Amino acid sequence: MTREAYHKSLNELQDELMRLASMASGALSGAMTALKDRDLAASKKIVMADAEVNRKRFEIEEKCIRLIATQQPMAVDLRTLAAIINIVTDLERIGDHAEGIAKISLSIGEEQLVKPLIDLPRMADKALSMLQRCMESFVARDAVAARKICDEDDEVDALYDAVYNELILLMIENPAIIKDATYLIWGAHNIERIADRVTNIAERVVYMVTGKMEEVNVSKY
Predict the structure, then answer these.
(1) Distance from first CA to last CA of the chain, Å, rounded?
(2) Which residues, 6+ apart, have CB-to-CB distance to 52 below 8 Å?
(3) Is the pLDDT of residue 42 over 70?
(4) Domain containing 21: what range?
(5) Are 14 and 83 contacting, i.e. CB atoms less than 8 angstroms apart?
(6) Is the pLDDT of residue 217 over 90?
(7) What confidence tier does 72 reach under pLDDT thresholds 50, 70, 90?
(8) Which residues contact 38 (CB under 8 A, 6 or more apart)?
(9) CA nearest 77: which of 141, 22, 15, 19?
């Protein structure tokens, strides 16, 4: 492989990584909309589409390994490929969490939600914003921006605690809603884990740019 072809392959990998990020964020956005609108058909589609997210993750991972094996990259190129291998894993897991929200919607079924969704959509919007900006920091090779995104995870954690505490109080007041309220707690937990996955991605961006492996996400919350 010529150097020109090699760098073309690296650029194509980056494009595919961004495509996978778009698939994962689309799954989360769609799952939250389906949960809020009680759209069971849309929830089923998100569950079925998760297989494509998995397939894309393994496809990118295989291409990275092939480039490492055949081209023996060094320095920043090697760090980039190593970062991509880790990032696709977290993106695939984000897809799994979105699928989990869609499955929760299906488990609730035709029942009305025990409360209007306010903080869950706020959590999802925050996580989606973090993911979008994190992937932009990857493209821009901006370690400073990636570090700042890690700090925002505390906001999602605070919203999760608010959702959890509110739903626990509702269950105490009305034990008949325990099952459906628990489903919403699980949904909030999935979003909280998505934000954690985004911070993992941000840490890989920092590593890719600086060459320093470190835990950036040290919670202050």
Answers:
(1) 49
(2) 23
(3) yes
(4) 3-210
(5) no
(6) no
(7) confident
(8) 105, 108, 110, 112, 113
(9) 141
The answer to whether position 217 is within a domain reads: no
How far is it, in rounded angstroms, from Cα 9 to Cα 31? 33
Is residue 220 in a domain?
no
- DSSP letter string, the chain: --HHHHHHHHHHHHHHHHHHHHHHHHHHHHHHHHHHHT-HHHHHHHHHHHHHHHHHHHHHHHHHHHHHHHH---HHHHHHHHHHHHHHHHHHHHHHHHHHHHHHHHHHTTSPPSS--SHHHHHHHHHHHHHHHHHHHHHHT-HHHHHHHHHTHHHHHHHHHHHHHHHHHHHHH-GGGHHHHHHHHHHHHHHHHHHHHHHHHHHHHHHHHH-----------
CA separation for the pair 162, 184 (Å, rounded): 12
Number of domains in the chain: 1
- Would you say residue 49 lies in a domain? yes
